[in-house]
Specification:
The chain is of the alpha+beta class. It contains ten helices and nine strands. The strands form three sheets. The protein has a four-stranded antiparallel sheet with strand order 3-4-9-5, covered by helices on one side. A three-stranded antiparallel sheet has the order 6-7-8. The protein is globular, with a radius of gyration of 24 Å.
Length: 275
């Protein structure tokens, strides 16, 4: 075997290994080795690197069928997906039918729709989360409404948790310089992704929280007592001396800031995830 046939065999062999690999899961606080996917011949291990690829393979077939059967044209429905997350955007009144057709196509592909993560949402009365963003009604500085995005509550909770872990008391053995490098990497990456919509207030929340956490961490590390934490480590010290990343305070300073606003007055969105 040689050439393209051999390459294809190698790819299939690699995919099979990914699907059958043994994983370590923590159950009741104890690590346990499992390979459920190998025994059941269904699914892949949680967090497997092959999952996004396989999801895109299936979604390509789904989207082609959606177009071929005329559902996109008939319902004026557009599909947006990223790996195994999907949203179907359609006109008011078409959401219920889109849900039924979507479930039918998924079944023909051998997939089952996760009902717990699937919902029919009507904009702008309701909101929904997609890829870390919350989509719904927003207000501009003049009080006018538009359908836009902002970081979701889950995204905020996640980033705050990461900052908390990086500034935990258990990390006081580390150097100040390395802690700042780790925090800056997290803050820059988060701000680089969440740069759409009214994000400045979220930046301010994270900035203030990070300042409090790093000041607390410094006090514990150096065993400083008896003085105001802010006086010990003022902003000039955190940002000037340590080089802590400072988030933008104006939208003009946000990297790759995009001013996208949908003036759509209403809409239906079907958010789904296969299992």
């Amino acid at each position: 075997m040689s050439g393209p046939a051999y390459l294809g065999w190698q790819v299939l062999r690699l995919i099979k290994q990914w699907l059958e690999v043994t994983v370590i899961e923590r159950i009741d606080g104890k690590p346990r080795r499992t390979n459920e996917a190998k025994h059941t011949h269904r699914g892949s291990a949680q967090g497997s690197v092959i999952s996004p690829l396989l999801a895109n393979v299936y979604f390509r077939r789904f989207i082609l069928a959606w177009e071929k059967f005329g559902y996109a044209r008939r319902l004026h429905a557009r599909i947006v997906n990223y790996a195994d997350d999907m949203v179907i955007c359609c006109r008011p009144g078409s959401g219920e039918q889109a849900m039924v057709l979507m479930s039918g196509l998924m079944a023909r592909l051998g997939l089952t729709v996760n009902e717990e993560k699937t919902a029919l949402v009507k904009l702008p009365e309701q909101t929904f989360d997609f890829l870390g963003y919350n989509l719904g009604r927003q207000y501009d500085r003049h009080g006018k409404t538009y359908i836009g995005t902002q970081p979701s509550k889950g995204a905020m909770k996640s980033i705050i948790g990461k900052i908390h872990d990086e500034t935990a008391i258990s990390m006081t053995w580390d150097t100040v310089e390395h802690r700042i490098v780790e925090l800056n990497s997290i803050l820059r990456g988060w701000a680089g992704y969440f740069d759409q919509g009214p994000v400045l207030k979220h930046y301010r929340i994270l900035q203030r929280y990070t300042e409090r956490r790093i000041r607390r961490w410094l006090v514990k590390k150096h065993k400083r007592r008896g003085r105001s934490v802010y006086r010990l480590y003022p902003d000039a010290f955190l940002y000037g001396k340590l080089g802590l990343h400072q988030s933008p305070v104006r939208m003009a300073d946000v990297s790759s800031a995009k001013a996208y606003r949908s003036r759509t007055k209403a809409g239906c969105v079907s958010s789904a995830r296969p299992v």
